[in-house]
Amino acid sequence: MGKLPVTFLTDYGTADGFPGICRAVIERESPGTVVIDLSHEVPRHDVRRGAVMLADAVPYLPAGVHLAIVDPGVGGPRREVAVRSAGGRLFVGPDNGLLAPAIERTGGAEAASDLSRSSLRADPVSATFHGRDVFSPVAAALARGAALDEVGDPIDPAALVSTVMPRAMVREGAIAAHALLIDGFGNVALDLRRGEAGFDPDLGDRLEVRSGDHRLSVRAVNTFADAEIGELVLYEDSSGRFALGVREASAAASMEVSLDAEIQLRPDGDDAA
Amino acid sequence: MGKLPVTFLTDYGTADGFPGICRAVIERESPGTVVIDLSHEVPRHDVRRGAVMLADAVPYLPAGVHLAIVDPGVGGPRREVAVRSAGGRLFVGPDNGLLAPAIERTGGAEAASDLSRSSLRADPVSATFHGRDVFSPVAAALARGAALDEVGDPIDPAALVSTVMPRAMVREGAIAAHALLIDGFGNVALDLRRGEAGFDPDLGDRLEVRSGDHRLSVRAVNTFADAEIGELVLYEDSSGRFALGVREASAAASMEVSLDAEIQLRPDGDDAA
Amino acid sequence: MGKLPVTFLTDYGTADGFPGICRAVIERESPGTVVIDLSHEVPRHDVRRGAVMLADAVPYLPAGVHLAIVDPGVGGPRREVAVRSAGGRLFVGPDNGLLAPAIERTGGAEAASDLSRSSLRADPVSATFHGRDVFSPVAAALARGAALDEVGDPIDPAALVSTVMPRAMVREGAIAAHALLIDGFGNVALDLRRGEAGFDPDLGDRLEVRSGDHRLSVRAVNTFADAEIGELVLYEDSSGRFALGVREASAAASMEVSLDAEIQLRPDGDDAA
After folding, report:
1. Is A34 at the interface with chain B, CB within 8 A?
2. Which segments of C102-162 are extended strands (E)?
3. Touching check for A32 and chain C: CB below 8 Å?
4. Mean predicted confidence (pLDDT) in B193-202
5. Under an 8 A CB cutoff, do C62 and B14 touch?
6. Which of A77, B38, B231, C35 has its CA 20 to 30 A from that of C12?
7. CA–CA separation, A149 and A111 (whole Å)
8. b/e per residue A143-171 (b: at least 16 CB within 10 A)
């Protein structure tokens, strides 16, 4: 059909029909475009979670337009952008860090446009529904082959908000991981999957977790459901990442960690560092 | 591809797979048709809510077939219809008021067909799943270009069930709005958005609300979450309408309003009316 | 477009974006393929529920590829298969009984391939996300016209795991039905719809239910909501099947039935058997 496919990720939820209206706008502006919903259930306003989901997904997505909207600052000073990565992927969304890790994963930003004066914007633009009024018309234009400088004003791609994701590594005999995601229960997902940084714990293994001044013992369990009440455990979450959780309490609070904080893991009782 | 796109709105929910089966029927009867899900989470049997969602969405929808099913009377005497509006839009669904506001918004009904003896109906038609057995085959036929009189028996469009939506207006110095939607918590959404009827309250403003014999003071807040327990507040809901709510109680009950009831708003302490 | 449509049923849920990534893989491997989501809300790991949903839906689905994934044994010894039924339908999924009733309903298995050494598998295949790494690439290949023996190694279709669904019948004056589905509340859906096996109870009728040594009296009600607390009732569920439920208790436990157990229904007070 000669049109690029569009993948679509938001925190809109599906009840109110907002993703459907965006899809309708894309179809109206670029008939026949294939739109693939990744998810519309990113936790509301959780930019980091959306960024991780998009970056995790992008290696599997068809080359095309990646429309992503998690935009707590809608109506405020954050920019609205379209970006082309070195790998030829096109990204559309708010310039708040949501797109950055996926852009990085597909080669880094090669060109970018600011959408604030785009001729494609609805007139008037609503106060809060820029998905419908700005981002979807731009995604549709790119899907039907518009150039980046046709959808907005060229800007320096180096000036985009950058939130390259942390990466776990081995350092001084320990694994230095980071708090990649913290959910509403205080569970902390790490930038660490099985096999990464040589990490391959057996079920039941005990590890020492260091975070700031905290040194805590943690048990590797199969699922979070295997934890005792109040026990700090390490488990693999649904996306395959190791996570730290305390049943019926907050691991983030008990370890006093915030996003991107370093969290070290080593065999329990190991005083090598 | 020469086929009209179909937009699709229901109260089916997604768990049981009913929308998917309807989409499958449309694909079977009209291969390659683009189907855009608006939402399948209209609160069950809430015809008014579905009507508002459809009418809100329709200015953004591509010209084509608008299939909508919220049908508490399925199997009963309400008609099943296909309707063309003066704006050239095609609507398919039960004739219970669900379609009327969107039809009105796209120019009013120009032609209509009764589907009760349509040759497109499944044989037999199930007792409750007319989405699959009646509405989807008709939507598919219209998508592939069938004329309205090929999918059913022509009827007088003036005889369609009419529920044109109320509209807020200024009257005697007050804004006369209406109870457009009442949700399960008793929150009352008004037919009033910011800027309509000159209404543009500041946060923290106090207004007087009159409904029947009730005169109540209401505070304008940013979100419903800003209300005190038991306090009547005015806030903008997710669709951009002003709504009245009482935290942990029912605004509809405390004001004794039902759907379409007039609700007047004026500056608090203003005795001009 | 010359490509077969793909229908898609899983227990993935929609929050984490797993169905979206599978759709993206299908689009990448077979651009322009129509993918129809049936549901991604099969209760987690409930193979039987998924099998019933697929078999219920298949008469309404366009001829094409039916991709279905409810796979509690992922990573274990169960096979991964692609199957062609005598009716020309193609099925892709785990060989754990999920596909069998739908295959049976479309003529029975005519040919099958084992996907364990398929050249289409991702390299490496993840531990748990075979939907993305195995099943979606295979579904995409079949959608674009690959033959069954191109996507895997031919196997004897008679060796597929078989779970043909039970079927209610009349026997000795009673209806011999079966426990087709048992939900998390212990409600038991029967393999019996209105009109099947001549069963057409009036509202308020009392019936005798026999299961093992249990003989219980049950009242036919319109919806489960009409039951008294603790009362065993018979009602039609959302898919049109008769089901047995006890309000605020488990019908399965009170009748001591497990999946596929025979449950007899006859007029109450009838001692003919």
Report:
1. no
2. 109-114, 153-155
3. no
4. 88
5. no
6. B38
7. 9
8. bbebebeebbeebebeebeebebbebeee
The two structure tokens encoding residue B79: 């008609």
Complex confidence, ipTM: 0.86
Chain A closest-CA separation from residue C205 CA (Å): 39
Q: How far is CA A165 from CA A47, A57, A258, in A?
A: 12, 14, 14
Helices (H) and strands (E) in chain A, counts: 7, 15
Of the given ranges (A22-26, A262-266, B200-204, C83-87), which has the lowest mean pLDDT? B200-204
Measured CA to CA, the distance from residue A154 to residue A149 in angstroms comes to: 6
Residue type, C195: G
| Residue A70 CA: distances (Å) to CA of A35, B60, B65, B241 | 18, 21, 30, 22
Q: Are B196 and B187 in contact (CB under 8 A)?
A: no
CA angle C182, C188, C194 (to 5 degrees): 130
Per cent of chain A over pLDDT 90 is 74
Single-letter amino acid, residue C235: Y
Q: Which helix (H) or strand (E) holds C137?
A: helix C136-143
Cβ count near B75 (within 10 Å): 11
Q: Give the pTM.
A: 0.90
Closest partner residue to B32 (CB to CB) among C9, C34, C63 is C34
In this structure, which amino acid lies at residue C119? S
Mapping DSSP to helix (H, G, I), strand (E, B) and coil, where does residue B159 land? helix
Q: What is the pLDDT of residues B29-62, one digit of tens each?
A: 999 999 999 999 999 899 999 999 999 999 999 9
> Which of residues B270 and A103 earns the better pLDDT score?
A103
| In the predicted structure, residue A1 carries a pLDDT above the cut 70 | no
DSSP sequence for A233-267: EEEE-TTSEEEEEEBTB-HHHHHT--TT-EEEEEE
Residue B206 to residue B45: CA distance in whole angstroms:
35
Q: Render pLDDT for A96-135 as a digit per residue (tens, 0 to 9).
A: 999 999 999 999 999 999 999 999 999 888 878 999 999 9
C207 — phi, psi (to 5°)?
-125, 160
Q: Are A249 and A186 in contact (CB under 8 A)?
A: yes
Contact between A57 and C17 using a beta-carbon 8 Å cutoff: yes
Work out how many CB contacts closer than 8 A connect A with B. Answer: 55
- Across the interface, whether the CB atoms of B39 and A20 are under 8 A apart is answered yes
Contact B107, B87 (CB under 8 A): yes
- Rounded to 5 degrees, what angle do the CA atoms C160, C166, C172 make? 145
The angle, 0 to 180 degrees and rounded to 10, between the axes of the packed helices A47-57 and C18-29 is 30
